[in-house]
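Researcher: Going back to the complex we discussed earlier. I've cleaned up the inputs and rechecked each line, so this should be the final set. Can you rerun the prediction on the complete assembly and write out the structure?
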Amino acid sequence: MQHKAEKLSFDERIEALIEKAREVRYHIVDMVHTAQSGHIGGSMSAADIMTALYFDILNINPEDPGWTDRDRFILSKGHACPVLYSCLALRGYFPIEKLKTLRKFGSILQGHPISKTPGVDISSGSLGHGFGQSIGIALAGRLAQKDYSVFTVLGNGEIQEGLVWEAAAAADKYRLDNLVAIVDDNRMQNDGFTDGIMPMDPIGKKFEAFNWEVIEINGHNMREVLKALEQAKNTVGSPVCIVANTVKGKGVSLMENQQRFHGKPPKPEEYVIAVKEIRGEA
Amino acid sequence: MNMDLTKAKVPTRRAFAERLVEYGEIDKDFVVFESDIGYSTYTHLFGDKYPARYFNMGIQELNTMDAAAGMAAEGRTALVAGYGVFLSMRAIEAVRSFVCYPNLNVKIISSHGGITPAIDGVTHQASEDMAFLSTLPNMKVLVPADTLAAKNCVDLVMKTSGPCFVRLMRDPLYDIYGPEDSFHMAGSHCLREGGDITIAAYGDIVFQALEAAETLSERGIEAEVLDLYSFKPLDYASVRKSIEKTGHLLVAEDHQKRNGMGYDLASYCLREYPVPFDHIGLEDTFAESGDYQSLIEKYGLSAAHITEKAEQIIKK
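Model: Rerun complete. Updated structure for the full complex:
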């Protein structure tokens, strides 16, 4: 709600988010390069969605990470935590310098998210489980008569887990309209293109069949992203799934659609090129 | 305690659920998750009285465990009831990484423990559950033997911080405890005193141990019988005190021998106080469908096996 609080127009919000997404992407590349480890491709594909959430949509307070009325966020595709850490640092949950400690011994920034990190609601990383836990968090919100929304980002590979569909059925049963799932559909997974490994299309129709409301968007068009998130947050009577068509490694040409950048860091020369492109200096 | 065994009116799974309904008045905050066997775990009794706090998630143990973790992460204690074999295996990763790792208040109530779901067959018997659950950091594991012990376990898990696992039985066996008996974490009860050998057991095998002790006494061997209902944390101090007196230890359990309580106590004794030792449990095998009595006889868990093994240890 940062931008809303500043009373910006929709266009101004979009402009600010596009600029912020550059910063988010810069820190993703920088922290993974520094760590020489981490999942860069799936972080970059989710960067626009995550930026819109953390710098506009989510009702959160970095000064009070455990504020009981805050919106909850669960990165179910936990391996993409560089994008989460980047957003949290830029939003003020911890100093930006901490990003350089990603995956290092003693760091608050573990290889996959844990709830001890300021701003991280629950641990995640084993695929499907973040989504499952979001069901419990949404039920808890309803039971406590809280107005918070629960947002969770899943990967297109992650939804191959049967657990995801157990959770989808549960959200339908309880008509969890405080729950929004965003599938970051970057068409790839660890071993290559999802279509060749275990096709999951049509994703939207699958969620529709589970009685979810479905919105399909271009996950890199900030207008579409922001509109969809607002619509989803305000939906009454149904859980909402946003299927975001995205590109793995988005924002750095040499990383886009490259399997190598699922879980491998850039080489030093690639890092230099990547930073230039993100900053618009290429 | 009442040393004359009386036939229990209800199985421990039902006793636990009955106390849970009462506890719903004492603590108005906790919730119960069920996976479509509410009429078998008897959690429907809770659901009938507190429908807003009862979530029947259908046949999806894994997501049920995650949902309970999410609920507990929001500060509300969540009980998850189901068959032991499913909760201890199908849902185990959620238990490990999302309940135990963040140390959340999720209480796992496992009915049909050990081979007590005898006639249901191997797919419904939970003969490795203690090994899986007790291996997880932060997890506490309780196995009440009778009606009052099961009811006490409700209060115990609700008052204990962090994850707990309670193993219950399918069928009624016997009652031994009275209102004066108290139960706590790392607790145990000495059900029969004796100076020749210590027989350590938990759950349904407690009754086999008591029967064996009776037979042994007729043969001139006085066995001390311990009910180690707190599987983890285990009451090593009471075991130590007993074996210092008897000098012999036999552990008998309705579980695989491997990674059961016998392995734990053998390790303890080797480190701290070596005594002649043996162990009764499933011998790296699965059981089968059949009545409980036939199964414990065929698979070596009965009073006769305990008696024989105790005599062998003493002759060593």
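Model: Worth noting: Chain A touches chain B at residues 114-115, 121-123, 125-126, 129, 131-141, 143-144, 162-163, 166-167, 169-170, 173-174 (CB under 8 Å).
Researcher: Good, that matches what I expected from the previous run.
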